[in-house]
Amino acid sequence: MKIVNLDGCTTNPGDLSWEGIEKLGEYTVYDRTSPDEIIKRAKGANILLVNKTVITADILDALKPELEYIGLQSTGYNVVDCAHARDLGITVCNIPSYSTKAVAQLVFAYILQITNEVSLHSDAVKNGEWTACPDFCFWKKPLTELEGKVIGIIGFGSIGQRVARLANAFDMKVIAYNPRPKDYKETPVEFVTLDELLSTSDIITCHCPLTPDTENLINGETISKMKDGSIFINTSRGPVVKQQALADALNSGKLLAAGLDVLETEPPKADNPLLSAKNCYITPHIAWAAKETRERLISILEDNLLNYLNGTPKNVVN
Ligand code: NAI
Question: Most buried pick, 83, 226, 264, 302, via CB within 10 A?
Answer without folding.
Answer: 226
